Description:
Order of helices and strands of chain B: HHHEEHHHHHHHHHHHHHHHHH
Strand order of the largest sheet of chain B: 1-2
Shape of chain A: elongated
Number of strands of chain B: 2
Radius of gyration of chain A: 33 Å
Structural class of chain B: mainly alpha
Shape of chain B: globular
Number of domains of chain A: 3
Oligomer: heterodimer
Largest interface: A-B, 26 and 39 residues
Radius of gyration of chain B: 21 Å
Largest sheet of chain A: none
Number of helices of chain A: 9
CATH superfamily of the largest domain in chain A: NADH-ubiquinone/plastoquinone oxidoreductase chain 6, subunit NuoJ
Largest sheet of chain B: 2 strands, antiparallel
Strand content of chain A: under 5%
Number of domains of chain B: 1
CATH topology of the largest domain in chain A: Four Helix Bundle (Hemerythrin (Met), subunit A)
Amino acid sequence: MTHAIFQMVCFILFAVVAVGSALAVVSVKNTVHGVLALVLTFFSTACLWMLAEAEFLALALVVVYVGAVMVLFLFVVMMLDIDLEPMREGYIKYLPIGIGAAVIMLIEMLGIIGIKTFNVQAGPNPAGASNVEWLGQALFTHFLLPFEIAALILTVGLVAAVVLALRVRSFSKHQNPAAQSAVRAPGRVRMVKMAAVTPAAPEPKPAEEPQA
Amino acid sequence: MFSLNDLLVILPELYLTAAACLVLLFDVFLDDEHRDATHWVAIVVMLVAIFLVIRGQPPETVTAFGGMFVRDHMAEILKVTVLIATILMFVMARPWLKDRKLFIGEFYSLSIFSVLGVMFLVSAGSLVTVYLGLELFSLPAFALVALNRESKLSSEAAIKFFVLGALASGLLLFGMSLIYGATGTLDLHAIFAAIGTTQHLHLLQFGLVFLVVGIGFEFGAVPFHMWLPDVYEGAPTPIAMYISAVPKLAAIGLAYRLLETGLGPLAGDWRMMLAIMAALSLVVGNVVAIAQTNFKRMLAYSTISHMGFVFLALSNPTPEGYASALFYAVCFALMETVAFGVILALSRKGFDCDMIDDLKGLNQRSPWMAGMMAIAMFSLAGIPPLWGFAAKVLVLKAAIDGGMLWLAIVAIICAIIGLFYYLRVVKVMYFDAPAEDVELSPKPDIALRWLLSINALGLIAMIGFSGVFFTWCQHAFGV
């Protein structure tokens, strides 16, 4: 019983932190603080997943999102120098309406579903298999087709990003490795025959008339 | 585990995946002068895909990968139409893209990837494949809208499309998660079976609302239509043509798979939602279209009203209703390609021919183009000897059979309002004097002219085959 209560307390704690930091992401003025709040959101979500016994997903979230993606975000945000003040005009003015609408929707949702409905039991855990094992099994057998489609989506994302972002600039200086490695001695070095001692410069002769 | 048989079932998709990658690679080795090769290769790729889809179609519905992928006749009709519409887009787009220095190989590979997404989506047998197919289809579409980086309007349209598309995906996913929570399965047939025994009916209905919102976004039905006019106006015209035709076909597949295959027992709940969306789309689409001066925006609002007609048919959840919706969507896609095709043929460098006034006096300058545009307009309006008429009749019949007489009456009134703006285009072309300083001559591209003519004349010829085609559509839904 105490275990269940402890779990419930942890859940509420993590959930409150996650929602609070998510709110901070969209409301703080400093973008760097916003990114840091997003890190906190991801971290609390990872904790929630840990509670749901989805260890692998929790670890992946921390390693991939907090570790890699968010660091990238921080770099980008620090490089940007945007003046966000004009975008915030009217924010306070509309805040009460927004909050009011959100609260009403929340009450409606809870009223319709009934909080008890959320107590859906998770499916039985396959005996003996660890989380990662189970995930691997599922991904490469039952979910093979979706897995491959997801790979296609990533390919498309890459192609689309290149199409949209790559600009061939005529003034940019860059290396051309293919041309560099294809170079041969005759292309680089020109042998010029010269006399060892320069004779006195002769008078420049006019070009010979072509023979008729 | 999967067997070799599974691979055979998804052969057209496998082939198209390989072909898309090959087109992408092939193009890298071409100079700008030889880029036409990519164009023709892409068209051949699509033709072979049509062949594979039709040739390998089993007489009975088959599934692969444990029910993740369903190959049935509905998917076949949708896939073939999508491939045809994309070929039309490729052929008609080439001169336009060349004029604007947008003729790049990625246009073709991204389009093929997008078509691949539609093919997975309409064949989906599980919530996961539905979602992934939708993403694979819309992600390249976002990029294609932003293809013209010089144009601010394009970028704006792409951002709007992207943000609203992401929002729609989010809503759809939220709905799916609620349905998964209530039924404990992702497989659509299993969801259908689980609805009878579930104790979480409220949760299920809640998820259903979100699914309907996601589907509404995909169709561009009111009140989820706001992105459509901006995207039509801002997107490069060939892409606008693609977005006007292909997503609607994909959305038919999406709606059928989610609402009928998955949530069929809840039809009593969702048919009323669709009926309300249909009525709103019909009224808003037709009334707002009257106020438009931009031809592409007018087509966007006309699209919204046509999606109202599709919902009209879907609000009758019987095989007849689905068959009429499928018929309507196919017919609509092939009408839009004509309307956009004429604009593409008349545009040239620095002139987009996208205002209604640009078409002034088209009949004096190019009677054939004016004639084709008139066919498209009359067909969209649903005037008798054209294919659009047959589609409208079937849809109205489906709605009346489904007991939605009030909706059918709304639809007829709105169709009559809609006549005004279609006929205005015809009036501008035939009775207005051409502007002195505007040169209106169709492009000398032979492939474009022929295909556009065949497409337009097809709208007349198809009225004769409406019965046959409707039988196919009914057959697809097991009548």
